What we know:
By secondary structure, this protein is mostly helical. It contains one helix and two strands, in the order ββα. The longest helix is centred in the middle third of the chain and has 37 residues, at 18-54. It is rod-shaped.
Amino acid sequence: MTQGQLSAVDKEENVFPESEKKAMEKKIRELERLLGRKTMEVECLKEAVRIGREKKLISREPLQGVEDFT
């Protein structure tokens, strides 16, 4: 069973093609990679805002429409 292999962990779980499982795992890895990239971008931007505020290049007033941004 190479092409049409099926996977199931427990008797009560649905059985689905191995290729579908691999495709889902690939998609999860891609989404995790993108999430990591976006998280780094947010951290860099927060640091830039902090530095800008320290140098008084950016107003200390709260950003409109953005909660929990410190």
